[in-house]
Amino acid sequence: MKTINQERPGGGASVSPAGARDRSGPRSPGRGGAGRSDRNRPDTGDRRSPAGRNPGQPGRGDRRPRGPVRDSPPGGSREGGTGRTRLDGRRAGGSRDGRQAVKPFQVKGELLFGRNAILESLRSSRRSASRLWVAEGLRQDERIDEIVSLAQMNEVLVEFVPRTLLDDLEPDVNHQGVLLETPDFPYSDLEDVIEKGGTVLVLDHLADPQNFGTLLRAGDAAGIAGAVIPSDRSASISPAVVNSSSGAVEHMDIALVPNLGRALEKLEQSGRWIVGLDGGGDAQELFAADIPMPVALVVGSEGSGLTPNIRKRCQLLVCLPMLGHVSSLNAATAGSIAMFDIVRRQRLEFPSEG
After folding, report:
1. Which residues partner with 284 through β-bridges?
2. Whole-angstrom distance, CA of residue 168 vs CA of residue 183
3. Are 320 and 269 contained in the same domain?
4. What is the CATH number of the domain that holds 327?
5. Do 201 and 150 lie in a common domain?
6. 346 and 213 share a domain?
7. Residues 267, 313: one domain?
8. How far apart are the first and last CA of the chain?
9. What band does 79 get if pLDDT is binned at 50, 70 and 90?
10. What is the rounded distance in angstroms from the CA atom of residue 259 to the CA atom of residue 189?
């Protein structure tokens, strides 16, 4: 048979075998009267009652509750003996029921994801990254080793955390076990792009991040001087774009302008031909057109193509020959073909620069 002691202030009751001394209340009197400890003690109230106990002072029989898990500071708390920094304030493995604590920090700036994107960002050193999170148990490869090494060289805080924490931070992306906290992308001035020699890529309200990043990746591979994008109704250099470009945008000069038409005027004044990639009836076939160098290549969005105002400012319109069953290519594919055809022309015209 079991007896149940009086309910404690925290709720619930302690269970002890019958006949056992209840140490949470006053001592029972002995055969000769009151116990020695109680004989001359003033009566301060019923010490079995919570009201007679100092707040926060549990009785002898009470089991002291475990303190709450404290959120770690923004830099995390050091896990003893491992040298690794944990973000959730718990020991390795999390809680007994396997649940992880809610992230106790706020991300400042952006979270780059994907191994190639993070590696190229650290290689370029254009952003002052603050923290790198690596999933615990991640299989090591050359990219991960270089990512961690570059982060440490640049005094970026490296933290090894449960993969579930990365999933909570970026639930809708394939982060590949690494996240990098950085400031927003540093755009370049239009004048800096113009001063560089070579082809300039102008994106006319291209909104799809995948096409956007893929086209910029091709532009970097083609060795363009830089890119110009409008500040409205267009994709920006977001972590998704950085990832879709495999980090190529981290090495590029990209100007964000409020008026794309005026930017084209400045590009024309710099001696570049404004060439628009368009599928209209008055466009010349790319491979047969005579295109003076250097060039500002304008690529429109999928579906609508070049906007009317930008189309009017182009000195030459070119298109790709469509010889199969489909009538068009997406902006990233068409733009990539056009840029590498320009590279071919430059090598023919200036062999020493190839």
Report:
1. 318
2. 20
3. yes
4. 3.40.1280.10
5. no
6. yes
7. yes
8. 94
9. very low
10. 13
CATH of the domain at 117: 3.30.1330.30
Q: Kindly give the pairing relationship between strand 226-230 and strand 254-257.
A: parallel
- Specify which residues 203 forms β-bridges with: 299
Which domain covers residue 137, as residue numbers? Answer: 73-184
Residue 86, helix vs strand vs coil = strand
| Paired tokens of 146 | 């270089």
In contact, 89 and 101? CB cutoff 8 Å:
yes
The single-letter DSSP state of residue 321 is -
Residue type present at position 284: Q
DSSP state, residue 305: B
The answer to which of 35-39, 73-77, 153-157 has the lowest mean pLDDT is: 73-77
Residue 353 banded pLDDT, cuts 50, 70, 90? low
Distance, in Å, from the CA atom of 137 to the CA atom of 79, rounded to the nearest integer, reads: 16
Quick one: 76 exposed, middle or buried, by C-beta within 10 A (0-12, 13-18, 19+)?
Answer: buried
Judge whether 346 and 197 are in contact, CB under 8 Å: no
Model's pTM, two decimal places? 0.69
Question: Is 252 in contact with 219 (CB distance < 8 Å)?
Answer: yes
| Letter string b/e over residues 224-241, b meaning 16 or more CB atoms within 10 A of that residue's CB | bbbbbbbeeebbbbbbbb
Strand partners, 277: 299, 318
